[in-house]
Amino acid sequence: YAKKAGRDNYKLFEPYMAEQESEQFDSEQTLSQAIAEKSAFSMLYQPRVDANKEIVGFEALVRFTNPSGLFVPPSQFIPLAEESNLIVPLEELIFELVFAQIAQWKKTFAVLPRVSINLSGKHLLSDGLLPFLKTAMQRYGIRGEWFEIEVTEGVFLADIETCIDVMQKLHSLNIAISIDDFGTGYSSLNYLKTLPVDILKIDRSFVNECAVKEEDAKICSTIITLAESLGLSTVAEGVETAEQFEFLLSNGCSEFQGYHFFRPLSADKVTQHLGQLNELSVS
Ligand code: C2E
Ligand code: MG
Ligand code: MG
Ligand code: MG
């Protein structure tokens, strides 16, 4: 009579719930089937630029088209995948898609800026990650220097010892690590000196109003100073205006990402940019 809902919550089953439950079941079903079939997922790549607005990296962002042809944003299916056990197979598929793409670009272009890949905390802490990565890197001929892994702060609270261990192992494969959405989680400064991280990505919520709000300006400049003093570099996320860029630049931010420079691009568009980038580097 009582139905299991969520983690350890039991609630009484009421008729009106049937619809919700079956919808939930449906989308989980759909997602798991889509992962098995692989074809509904694709990647976009958002450029990251330096102080001269030159492309120095790309962030791989997943897109999902559901069976009815509807576009489902990652904010809807990534949390669902994290709640169920689908996040690991989903992210393994994402690694494969990105590695295949990197391998293809590498065949054509001598200069290929690093591609960063988002990783869920649950996956970072799972036993399978390192063996999977080693095998996949070998299979696609990918070197650790060619990509980077983004994790959010939440995972440090879950199991700091395992985080340190896994991140050190990623480093020994020459994979750089960035903390995504920095400033929105609960990580203590103590974590920052203990963890083998390379880059802090300043969350969009601070960047948003850094050119108009004193508090946000101070948060951004403090994160940049903190990063510098720890020998880390900074990426500002969600830069949308010239004013935000100027402010962050004058405060020493190293790299920038956002609609002011580029939207997430298709692989074909990236290929065009890589063509230009490689011509420039030859001449
Ligand atoms: P994120 O990792 O912080 O990615 C940046 C998000 O900000 C992307 O949204 C990007 O399209 C958006 N963005 C970039 N520039 C701007 C800007 O100037 N203004 C605004 N308003 N937004 C901007 P997207 O692609 O919808 O992804 C949302 C989140 O979903 C990501 O946040 C990430 O947490 C997650 N996600 C996306 N792809 C993956 C993936 O392959 N694996 C995992 N685990 N998570 C992913
Ligand atoms: Mg990210
Ligand atoms: Mg982010
Ligand atoms: Mg963000």
From TrEMBL:
Q: Which locations, inside or outside the cell, does it occupy?
A: Membrane
Annotated GO MF terms: ammonium channel activity; catalytic activity
Q: Which GO terms describe its cellular component?
A: membrane
Main localization (coarse): membrane
- Enumerate the spans annotated as EAL domain: 24-278
Keywords from the UniProt entry: Ammonia transport, Membrane, Transmembrane, Transmembrane helix, Transport
Instruction: Using the record, list the residue span of the signal peptide; answer none if the entry has no such feature.
Output: none
The entry assigns this protein to a family as follows:
Belongs to the ammonia transporter channel (TC 1.A.11.2) family.
* Record protein name field: Ammonium transporter, Amt family
Give the lineage.
Bacteria, Pseudomonadati, Pseudomonadota, Gammaproteobacteria, Alteromonadales
Q: What range of the intact protein is shown?
A: 735 to 1017 of 1017
